[in-house]
Amino acid sequence: MSPFNPDRRRLLHALGASTALAAAAGIPGTGLAAVASKRGKTIGRVVVVGAGFGGATAAKYLRKWSDGTIEVTLIERNRQFVSCPASNEVLGGNRAYDSLVHGYDGLRKNWEIRLVHATVTAIDADKRRVRTDSAGDFAYDRLILAPGFDFIYGDIAGYDARAQESILHAWKAGPQTLALRKQLEDLPAGGTYVLSIPKAPYRCPPGPYERASQIAWYFKTHKPGSKVIILDANDKVISKEKLFRGVWESDYKDIIEYRPGWNVTAVDPVTRIVTNELGDKERGDVLNLLPPQRAADIARVAGVVNVNDRWADVDWISLESTAVRNIHILGDALQAAPLMPKSAHMANQHGKAAAAAIVEILSGREPQPTLMANTCYSLIDDKRAIHVDSVHRYHPEKKVPLVVDGSGGVSKEPSVEEGLYTRAWATTMWKDSLS
Fold first, then answer.
1. Rounded to the nearest 10 degrees, what angle do helices 53-65 and 344-362 cross at?
2. CA–CA dist 395, 129 (Å, integer)
3. Alpha-helical runs (H) found in 127-167
């Protein structure tokens, strides 16, 4: 069977590509290869910072593929995992918030990962030590940083700490998800919700457009006369453009107003007015601003941020930093390869690729590039969804993963079937990363 035929794609969509792509990459489910050391003898220590989709996955598969011969310490400041994927459904009233919240006990119980809840404050790359605020220091042979992203608030004048209390981003799922949902519930019928989108790259390219669709569905069914205004700093919808624009025209024509090339540069939290580079203004009863993004602060502390003062570059065979040896970078903090989105699915794949490489390195072998895949689903109402997917293979001359010809694509149209796949994908990804 061809690895890219329609039946294969359907399987990848439904399962989140976790098992199928591991097989396609030559990675058995029970181990990379026969590790020379016997179980119980440690061949190395790995510290993982950040337990999102990338870090949690890497920690699990390091233990799994090394047959327990690599000691893994996972440092995460939050005691619970709150999923950003599926959080837009909460805003649309189509999912309970509690369904996003998961624990880390499965990683500890199933894989004997040492789980530490603390904040990393310093990294000594020369001595290979990680310092935390409350749990002491940790030595490593290899360090994995999966820190996610932080916002560049300073690019929006007036978006100071006080303004952030009422003008939310909700782009990191958690309390702000609930707070923004409450603002939408309190909005009177006929009110206006304004969503600003920063210039790419940012986490989850289709995410803002899905959010606008979810909220438009909520307005259509519960807030007659209300409007969604999308202020997009990009020149066009940057993911699934024809599908999103088609849905907005057919389902939300009198609700969603899309304005490309509209870059928010200032906000007045009192009047709730935003301004762009040309001096144009827009007011919203609910303002939802997504500031520009960069690798999280701990990546800067580690010295791995070396692209545009925003992102970290890596060797794509091992995902080892090109700036600091023995540190591997995953997920949103990366300078992405061509057409590789900053997505949860991609972070999960980074985690597996880094785990595979580190098992090989600590076993005295050369790491090999692994095949990586991505699927991004977007729910456009309470039942129907659309998707985009791709498969990425390392190119030895260009030294980056490139999209495999014929491997990806987008939905033909929204469907209930894809809505079921969307929710199955989320359940599968949570299980694959956290248990």
1. 30
2. 33
3. 161-164
Residue pLDDT, tens place only, 365-415: 999 999 999 999 999 999 999 999 999 999 999 999 999 999 989 999 999
Phi–psi pair at 145, nearest 5 degrees = -105, 120
Q: Over the range 331-357, which residues count as b (16 or more CB within 10 Å of their CB) and which as e?
A: bbbbbbbeebbbbbbbbbbbbbbbbbb
Cβ neighbors of 157 (< 8 A, separation 6 or more) are 265, 266, 267
Token digits of residue 67:
């047959």
pLDDT tens digits, 293-352? 999 999 999 999 999 999 999 999 999 999 999 999 999 999 999 999 999 999 999 999
CB atoms within 10 A of CB 409: 13
Distances (CA, A) of 152 to 26, 41, 212, 378: 40, 45, 22, 26
Is 13 in contact with 389 (CB distance < 8 Å)? yes
Q: Which domains does the chain have, with CATH numbers?
A: 6-150+294-434 (3.50.50.60), 154-292 (3.50.50.60)
What are 51-72's pLDDT values in tens digits? 999 999 999 999 999 999 999 9
* Sequence letter at residue 157: A
Contact 113, 107 (CB under 8 A): yes
| CA 334/CA 338 separation, integer angstroms | 12
| Residues forming a β-bridge with 193 | 228, 286
DSSP state of 291: -
Number of neighbouring beta carbons within 10 Å of residue 248 = 22
Residue 156 corresponds to which tokens in the numbers above?
């929006």
Question: Cα–Cα distance between 84 and 174 in angstroms, integer?
Answer: 8
Phi and psi based region of residue 136 (left: phi greater than 0; alpha: psi -120 to 50; beta: remaining): left
236 burial via Cβ count (<10 Å: 0-12, 13-18, 19+): exposed
* Cβ 375 vs Cβ 428: under 8 Å: no
> How far is the C-alpha of 268 from the C-alpha of 281, rounded, in Å?
10
Cis ω before 206 (30° cut-off from 0): no
